[in-house]
Automatic annotation (TrEMBL):
UniProt keyword list: Membrane, Transmembrane, Transmembrane helix
PANTHER family assigned to the protein according to its UniProt record, in alphabetical order: INNER MEMBRANE PROTEIN WITH PEPSY TM HELIX
Tagged with keyword Ribonucleoprotein: no
Taxonomic classification: Bacteria, Pseudomonadati, Pseudomonadota, Alphaproteobacteria, Sphingomonadales
Name under which the protein is recorded: PepSY-associated TM helix domain-containing protein
Transmembrane spans: 25-47, 157-182, 188-208
InterPro entries: PepSY_TM-like_2
Family annotation (Pfam families): PepSY_TM_like_2
């Protein structure tokens, strides 16, 4: 029998392969989510202190006129404006209501166009064709806060948040597994992890009512 020092260490290659894979996935997920994680962390602070961050909304009003041939006719409820009418509105007031649900009444057509960090709407008088539009801009902090919440940000941002969240989950899980691999040489690893779990639970149970 060979001496103990000469015996091969079982699973050393397997352990090395797993460590390499975990390190690769950990840094890739970190690189993918780094900038977005920074932005979401900063906006977490701005959202938490939203009441103390002053913001003065900037409101702009515009008016325009539709030609008589483009006066909107009554369609089914919530039907968007026709492409021709939407294009004429955009030329007149600089807002594009295309493909957005419209609220129809006997006297007007109203299209709401909420967006991150602001709001906008267009109203068309169905008798005269007069266009009234208003935009509200609440500033960059409000814009980033709304992106954090996914508020009125559209389908592309919706999917970006899901992909970003998946990258963060991968980052944290690979980090947890790396902690497992290195915990033997770092005895404070699991007490610190346990504290990270216990602190929010204690605060939620004792102070959040």
């Amino acid at each position: 029998m060979p001496p103990a020092a000469a015996r091969p260490v079982p699973n050393r290659k397997w352990r090395g392969w797993w460590l390499k894979q975990l390190h690769n996935w950990h840094w890739v997920s970190a690189a993918v989510s780094l900038v977005a994680m920074l932005i979401f962390s900063i906006t977490g602070i701005t959202l938490n202190h939203a009441g103390s961050i002053a913001a003065e909304p900037v409101v702009m009003n515009r008016t325009g006129q539709l030609s008589a041939s483009l006066l909107p006719r009554t369609p089914a409820a919530d039907t968007p404006l026709s492409p021709e009418v939407a294009a004429a509105v955009e030329r007149a007031v600089g807002l594009d209501p295309a493909a957005r649900p419209a609220e129809w009444s006997d006297s007007e057509v109203y299209v709401a166009m909420p967006r991150p960090g602001g709001d906008a709407w267009v109203s068309i008088d169905r008798a005269t064709g007069r266009i009234t539009a208003e935009t509200t801009d609440r500033g960059w902090v409000s814009y980033l806060n709304d992106l954090h919440k996914g508020r009125n940000a559209g389908a592309a941002w919706f999917w970006f948040i899901d992909i970003f969240a998946a990258a963060c989950i991968l980052f944290t899980l690979t980090g947890l597994l790396l902690l497992q691999f290195h915990a033997r040489r770092r005895p404070m690893t699991w007490p610190i992890v346990a504290a990270g779990l216990a602190i929010p639970i204690i605060i939620a149970v004792l102070f959040v009512h």
